[in-house]
Design brief:
Blueprint lengths: L5 E5 L7 H17 L4 E4 L5 H6 L4 E5 L10 H9 L8 H8 L1 H10 L7 E5 H7 L1 H12 L3 E5 L9 E3 L5 H9 L4 E6 L3 E9 L6 E2 L3 E5 L6 H5 L4 E4 L6 H17 L5 E9 L4 E7 L9 H8 L4 H15 L1
Amino acid sequence: MSDLDRVVVLAGGLSPERDVSLRSGHRIAEALRRVDVEVSVHDVDATLFAHLAADAGVVVFPVLHGVSGEDGTVREVLELAGVPYVGAAPQACRFAFDKPLAKAIVSRAGLRTPASVTLPRQVFHDLGAAALSRLILDKLGLPVFVKPRAGGSAFGVTAVRGRDELAEALMSCFGYHDEALIELAVSGTEITVGVLDLGGEPVALPAVEIVPDSGVYDYTARYTPGATEFFCPARLPAAVLAEAAHAALTAHRALGLRDLSRTDMIVDRDGRVHVLETNVAPGMTDTSTFPIALGAAGYDFGIVCRDLAAHAADRG
């Protein structure tokens, strides 16, 4: 791999996930410094390209979440500027960030995903929210999750257990996106599987089992130390863990991802794996599952971050 001149970690942005991005970015920067990589952290603003242009050997490590960060926008601009970066290419980001589109792609690749309906805000106005909600729940049943079509960190996501709860859940969702994904809630064990891809064969990391104290893996449960218990590897039979690893690798390949990804899943009571979504910029905070899985697999976090950046430099 290439010798690294300098790494610029992109963190922050203007999405609701700004705080998580900053925490992830500073953790990556600290890890890179521990392995003697020159690194700086920069936000996405009007000074960014002047900053990058000052060093022809720079590699960018984007740790941006939400719109612009994960939808391919910033990476598209980095491509225009000819700056190498860690992570998936713009088109792959667009595929993965759009939850219904990603579900269709991984479903065609043979993976199981929960039944769902995706509809824009306007159709509830035009056709009548009450009648349309009734049709949706008659089709899917209860409980369901209402999610923004795109986004992360569980913003705008609501569990709906009664018919009278759907209207409020949709209003919360539409605060983050104009389209709602209403998805059947699968009961079972919540797990996530990271994929590390350094240019050879992608490797599935050990599955992380997620057990939030509140029973719901929301924003607070994700980023408050002690609010969620993690088990890595997940407490599941070996055959189920193998299926989960296969699902994560299949999603990674089907969506055209590279370098790293994280696929969230539910394992139902019969041991069947249901893919929920795949993330192209996994969180890297102290409570994030990707670093937990790296540690369980025996990887050094700083060396992995360095190798990802070096691989991006080679590719660039």
